[in-house]
Amino acid sequence: MALPNNAHQFSHRNRRWAGPLLAVALFFFTGASSAHAQTEDGVKAAFVYNFAKFTNWPTNAFASSSAPVLVGFVGADALADTFETIVAGKNVNGHAFSIRRYPAGADVHNCHILFIGDPGQATAVLNAVQGKPILTIGDSDVFASSGGMVKLFRVGSRIRFDLDFEATQAARLKLDARVCQLAENLRGK
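Now predict its structure.
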């Protein structure tokens, strides 16, 4: 679903309520265990899972209609472990999940989602996948300034996200309009 023309007008008052509601929805829909749900990695893993649910890739991004969604993690092994626990037995539109942990300098081109947790690798990795249908997610300022799509960040005890809409469009990814409306900051629109 494309971003509606008035999405940038999503009021601050509505956003204030949308954040807590999204957090509740994330844990309800992910089925995250309470132990994982209470950790920062648990919340971030739930966000990654929900971004998978609300992203549409070009049809040629998957080898077949049953090919898995490949989620890669660069410099975020603990998050990969948590994500693997959360998505066990789940799928997105008939696509199961396959999780990979990539060392520095690894070829990450076959991913559908790529979480970049190491700021020292963010620029090189993002340059390598630029324009490819890979949803990039990270949590560092370097990630965001290097062209990353979804930047997760902490505000008090909550995790929020910024979205670079222009970067998702350049990668031929379509995000559900509700995701765009929940972004703290929407760049490129």
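The chain is about 40% helix and 25% strand.
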